[in-house]
Task: structure prediction
Amino acid sequence: MDELQRELPDVEATQALACQLASFVAAGGVVWLRGELGAGKTTFARSVLRALGVAERIKSPTYSLVEHYPLASGNDAWHLDLYRIAGADEMDYLGLDALWAPGAVSLVEWPERGGSAIPPADLEIHLSQALEAAGRHARIVPVSARAHAWLRQLAVMDPAGESSTGACADAVPRA
Result:
């Protein structure tokens, strides 16, 4: 399967997709989030982090560029927003070696600005405003072999997900 497309008519649908994705990346993975300003990249990243068990306030990394969240599993999650990076050479000052650690979960907005300073994507999620209805459209593209397996599993999952029932928190392994 080369890609999967999902309509996200509301925030709950976005959270449901993020919950499903979190179950795959919990053991480590790199997700590149693409889309125009306001497409929902930060909302999606926050939803993944919440599904991974981050209980603290999840801040937007718009100004800090990088936010780190230790997970109960012992792994680390990273949320990067590289919109304000003018060039990949600016990445050297951020000290991002931990993004490459086994088990690290990296959610990267505006990845094209990071160059080789960020790990290659396992999965790319392209978010856009829906053309004919309210909400957003997600195009999910696997890049790595493990992401192809994730996509096959995601394709057979109920798009409504389990987050509306509160089961999302139980679906993501943490320890």
